[in-house]
Amino acid sequence: MTKEQIIQFLQKTNKKYKNKNELINLIANFYDDNFNEVKRVFDNLLESGKVVEAYAGKFKLIEDTNLVKGKLIGNNRGFAFVDVGDPNVPDFFVPPSKLNGALNGDIVLVKPLSQTDLSQEAEVVKVLARNNTTVVGTFEKLKRGDGLITPDNNKFSKQIIVPQKASMGATTGQKVVVKVIFSAKGENLKGEVIEILGQEDDFKTLQLALIRDHKLYEEFPKEVLDEASKIPQQVLPSELAGRLDLRDELTFTIDGADARDFDDAVSISKKGKNYVLGVHIADVGHYVHQDTELDKEAYLRGTSSYFPNLVLPMLPKALSNGICSLNEGVDRLTLSCIMEIKPTGEVVDYKICESVINSKKRFTYDEVFAIIQGKKPEVKTFAKFKQTIDTMNELSKILGEVKKANGMLELDVPEVHFELDENEKVKVVEPRERNEAHILIENFMVIANETVAKHYAKLDFPFVYRVHEKPTREKIASFCYFLNSIGEPTPEIVGNQIEPDFVQEILKQLNGKDYEQTCNKVLLRSLQKAKYLEDCLGHFGLALEYYCHFTSPIRRYPDLCIHRIIKEDKKKKIDKTRIEELRDFVADASIRSSETEKNATEAERDVDDLYKAYYMQDHLNEEFEGIISGVQSYGFYVELTNTIEGLVRVENLPDDGYLFFEKTYKLKGPSRTFGLGDKVKVKAIKASMYDRKIEFVLAE
Fold this sequence. Notes:
Number of helices: 16
Low-confidence stretches: none
Strand content: 25-35%
Helix content: 25-40%
Strand order of the largest sheet: 3-4-5-7-6
Number of strands: 33
Distance between the termini: 70 Å
C-alpha cells in the first residue's frame, strides 16, 4: 500500500464515514490489501498533515481545505508565528487566545482568519506533532513541596508545575529535563522530572542542558545496543561473494587527527593519460537494514552531532567505530564509485559496485599536507605513498579548476576549532585549518557524489538528493545594494534567474579584502538553505546539476538511505511495487534528514557559543582587534580573528543620536559611522555562559 493509492481513493470519493476504521476497511477492500498495512500508511498521512479530518468522519486532502500546515514559532510574550515552509509566503501571526494549546516547535494546522499585504492572522485548529514532549529548565521548589520549572528556551512561554512525587528529589537551582503532560486548551502544564543535569552555574551542566534542549542523547536504547552487539566485528568469508576485491589496492583514509570513525577511503591509478579514482565508502547498508531497531534509531537521529569534547553518533560505536569504520589494516565491506577521469576533469567512465578493501594507512590531513609540500620527515616516513598522493593532488587541482570554471562558490567562512586542556577547559579558540589535503578529499567526495546522483537521476529511481536551490533575484539585488553602499561595484542583474557564475564574479572581486568574510556571511544569508529532497533540483553553491550525499553513511542518514537503494538495484530487487514504496520512504527520509541536520547544526552552534563565552570569561578587560560583522539598531557585532563575536551596544558608543540604516548595514552618529567590514579595536567587558552572549566596548 502506498500513500499515492490512498490519496487517489480520497480524490475519487467524497463521503462521510462512521469512523476512521470504516474508511480504512473500504480502502483495504478496494485495493485487496491488508487492513493493518493500510492503517499504517493512512495514519502516516494523518500525522504528516497531508490528510485531515475536516469534521467527524469526513477525511480530506489538506489542499482541498482552507487549512494550512506549518511549524509554530513561540515567543516569551505568549503569541506565536507559524512558518509554512515557503519563503514566498509570510508567517501567520497567532495571538495567545488562538493557540489552543500549541507550543513552540509544534507542527500545526491553522485556519487563516484575516490577511493584509503585510501580515496574516490565523488560529490553530490541530496539533499534528508535539515538539516539546520534554523540556529543559531550572527547578524551583515551592513552599507546598511541588516544583516550578522555568524553561531555558525563551520561545517556550509557559512554566511547568511538577508534583512533589514526580520531582526525583530535585532542588532549587538545578537544571532538569521534564516530561511534559499536555493539557487541552492551554491550561497550566504539568510534568515529571526524568533527568537531573546538575547545578545551573556549572559549565558541564549548561552544555548538557543545551544538548538536551535539542533532544539529543548520548545513550542508545537497549534494543538498539542489543541488535548492534549481534553484528560480527570482522568481515566473514561468506560476505565476499559478488564483491569487487580491492584488498591489494593501495587504499587509505585521510581524516582529522581527532577522528574516530572513517567512512571514506581513496585510491588512484593511471590509465594512459587518464586518472582512475576510487572512492570507497563504508557499506553501512550491509549491516543496517530498513525497519530494524538500528535503522529506526538512525532515522530518528538523522545525523551524528559534534561538540568540542563529545560526539553523539548516529550509530552505536560497535558500528561507527567498529565494523563499519574503514580502520587501517583490516578488511572492510564498501560501496565503491570508481571513475575514469580525463586530464580535463571529465568523467568518461565509472563503476558503482559493492567491494571489499583493506586500508593500508590511516592518514591525517596534516600528514598528507606535509607530503604534498615535500617535507622531508614525512616524505621519508611515507615513501611508498608519495607518488600516489602526488597523483591525487594533481587530480584534485584539475577538479578544483573545473569547479571554478563551472561557477562554484568559494565562501571563506571558517569554522571554529577549540583546544582543550586535561580538565576540558578551553585553552585556544582559533579558525579551523583548511589546507590542500582537506581540499583534495572535498574534491574527491564531490565528484563521487555527483557521479552517483547523475547515474540514479537518469534511471529515474527513488533517491535522496542534496539540493541547493537558486536564490531569489530580490535577495541577490539586496546583497548587491549592500556592496554598492560600501563602495563595491557589482555587475547588472539580467533576467530573473541568478546563476552561480554571477555570484562567483562578486566573490572574486572581494577576495583578499578586509571585509571579505563579513560580506561572505551577508551573502550566505541571501542564499537558500541546502536540504534533502526526493527531486533532483541541482546544487547552486557547487554549480552542479546533479548532487547527493553518498560518502558518509556512518554519520548521515540520507547516505545510508541511498546506499540501500543502490544495493537493491545491484541485486535487481527493485520492481514496480518496491519503487512506489521507496518513493514514499525517500520523501519521508528527506524531510526527516533536513530537520535533524538543522537541529544538530543549531545544537553545535549553541554549544560552540557556550565554549566561546566560557573562554572569554578569562579574557575580560583585554583588548582585541576585529571586524564589524553585523549592524542593528541597538549596536553592532564585532568578530575577532579567532571567530569569537560580541556586541557593542549603541549606548556605549561615543556621542548620542545614532541612526540605523538597515539596507546599508550602518550606524551613523554625529561624528562617526560604523558599518559592516570596518576594523575596530574593542575591549571585552562581559561574557555570560547563561545566554552565551559576549559584550565589547570600543577600546579607542
